[in-house]
Every structure is written in C-alpha cells, then in structure tokens.
Design goal:
This protein has 15 helices and eight strands. By secondary structure, it is α/β, with parallel strands linked by helices. The protein folds into two domains: about 240 residues, Aldolase class I (TIM Barrel); about 60 residues, Up-down Bundle (Four Helix Bundle (Hemerythrin (Met), subunit A)), CATH 1.20.120.1460. The protein starts with about 25 loop residues before the first strand and ends with a helix. Its cofactor is FMN.
Length: about 350
C-alpha cells in the first residue's frame, strides 16, 4: 500500500482530526452481503471500526428506479460507505450512480461476481465477466456523471473461462475502456450453473497467487482481494502483495475481530474498545430506530456473534434470539442479555 497517497476515499476519523490519514479505507473493507450488510449492520460495524470501508448489500438499478422503498437509505454515521449496484444497462447505472452520489455515498461498486441464477437472468453479476466491453461501458457511463470512485468487484473467472489470459483481458478492457482504477477480486472462479451461490463461495478453489500476479502485471491499478480471509494476520499477509483486503462472513459472524482493525491495519493509536461498551453505545441508535417503527430483532440479529469465546456468549445469543422479536421488545432486552457476558 502506498503511504500518504491522496485518494478520493481519504477521510479523517473523528478521533484523528488534523492528522492526515495514512491509508485509504479500501485497505480493509467488509464485503457486500445480501440480507446481511443492511444499514443496521453497518451502523454496528462502524462502532467497532472507524477506518474500514463498508459496503451496502447489492441493490439492483431496477429496485432503485422502480421500487417502492428507499433503497439508498443509510445512516450518516456509516461513512466511508460504498453502494454496490447490480445491473448491466449503462444508462440505468449512470442514473443510479448520480442519485447515490447525491445521497452522500463515498463509492459506487459494480457487482460482477454474484453467480446466482436470479442474478444471471437479470443480466448482472458474474455472468458479466464474459461481457467485458459492456462492463466497461457501464463503468464509463457512471464515471462520466459522478466524481466519487467507481469500482468493480469480480471473480477470477467463470465456468471454463478461467485462464489467467481471460482474467487479464477482462481487467484490461474494464480498466482501459471503462477507466476503472480499482478492482476487488474474489479469488475463486464462479460456476454459473450446477453450483448454488453458497457452493460457489466454497467449492471452487481459492487462488490467491493469481490475484497477486494481477497486481504485478497491473501495478497502476488498486487491487484488493476477497475470499476465505478469516484473521487479521491473514489480511496482513495479503497486504504484503496487494492494496486492500475485503473480509466477508468472518467479519459478520465474529464482529469482535473488527475492534482491532483500526489499530492493526490502519496504525491508529488507541485502546481497543470493550465489547460491552460497544453494545451500550448502540442504545441511542436502537431507541431512535424503535421510535421509527423498526423491530428490535432487525438490529440485534447483527450483534449475536460479538462475544465469541467469552463466557456467557451462548446465553447472550439465546436471550436475544428468544426475546428480540416479541411485541414491545426494547433496549431492556439487550441490557438483560448483556448481564450474561459482563
């Protein structure tokens, strides 16, 4: 990672006012995960780490343009936060990118990695790897109308199109014609038929050296890696070769790991926050959301894994799981659950 390099992402955490950030937030990010990384999850993750780049769940351009809900909703406390879009039509992508920038997002990311059949039918996700020119046109259309970074999350190949040459051709086209400067690569290929999305996260073998090679062959690009990263020690190893690391399920299922990120990966001095204190600092948000009609369980489902390895963690999870969905459930439910791990 190039130190002290000005990036469009550069921001100053509230604890470091006046201190130039050492690294771009893309040095470490939490993967966009459907049904998981919603705004409640992101608010919670931000309490654990100020520096990490957060991503929304993938949102389709159709949902944003035609949907009844507000698919761009996020909390002001989430920054830096990126919107991940799923689509292939350049005009729709440009329209939604412009809306997202107006709403304050720090980055737009195009999903070229999701292998689900539903996604393929909508002509987006991993199947787009076979259509590099179309991806490039979509990226260029977005770049032409926004000033924030436009990035791509992709795989290292699809089906039998999994040679290194295929990957290089894709990156070269999207970086050249699309003027895309940043890619996050899930270091597995995707099988577009025959495997479920879950199997596609586990069955195709990880190939980290291929992503390292890509960085060597495209040194001017910012390249981050995703797939199978479970510890900050592993993240440090990847950062010897690459610009960034994206962590997915481990960050969600064991969120306590995030409390060490700012110190260990971003060099921010300061004590790691106590997990109990983190939950207590979530109370005002919970109360605000409950008054707006949010159900407690929609928030607490994201905090279940915080106390992994701590005595009482099982009772903490059980108390929340059994009580958060009950009518009238409020902060008291969380307070009672905390008693098990204090």
């Amino acid at each position: 990672m190039h130190e002290n390099k000005e990036t469009p992402h550069s921001h100053q955490s509230s604890e470091n006012i006046g201190v130039a950030p050492k690294y771009s937030p893309s040095r470490f990010s939490i993967a966009p995960m459907l049904d998981w990384t919603d705004r409640h999850c992101r608010y919670f993750h931000r309490l654990l780490t100020k520096e990490t780049l957060l991503y929304t769940e993938m949102v389709t351009t159709g949902a944003i343009i035609h949907g009844k809900g507000d698919y761009l909703a996020h909390n002001k406390e989430e920054h830096p936060v990126a919107l991940q879009l799923g689509a292939s039509d350049p005009a729709a992508l440009a329209h939604c990118a412009k809306l997202a920038e107006q709403r304050g997002y720090d980055e737009i990311n195009l999903n070229v990695g999701c292998p689900s059949g539903r996604v393929q039918n909508g002509m987006f996700g991993a199947c787009l790897m076979a259509q590099a020119a179309l991806v490039a046109d979509g990226i260029k259309a977005m770049r032409d109308v926004v000033s924030i970074p436009v990035t791509v999350k992709t795989r290292i190949g699809i089906d039998d199109q999994d040679s290194y040459e295929f990957l290089c051709d894709f990156i070269s086209t999207v970086a050249g014609r699309g003027e895309c400067a940043m890619f996050t690569l899930h270091a597995r290929k995707a099988w577009l038929s025959g495997l479920s999305p879950k199997e596609n996260r586990e069955v195709p073998p990880l190939d980290y050296p291929r992503v390292y090679q890509l960085k060597r062959d495209f040194p001017a690009l910012t390249i981050a890696i995703n797939g199978g990263v479970k510890t900050l020690e592993e993240a440090q190893q990847h950062l010897q070769h690459l610009d960034g690391v994206m962590m997915g399920r481990e960050a969600y299922q064991n969120p306590g790991i995030l409390a060490r990120v700012d110190n260990e990966l971003f060099g921010v001095q300061g004590a790691v926050k106590d997990s109990v204190a983190i939950i207590e600092s979530l109370y005002p948000y919970i109360e605000r959301e409950l008054s707006n009609g949010t159900y407690l369980g929609h928030i607490t489902r994201h905090i279940l894994g915080l106390f992994q390895g701590v005595p009482g963690a099982r009772q903490w999870r059980r108390h929340l799981s059994e009580n958060a969905h009950k009518p009238g459930a409020d902060v008291q439910v969380v307070e009672q659950a905390l008693d098990w791990v204090r």
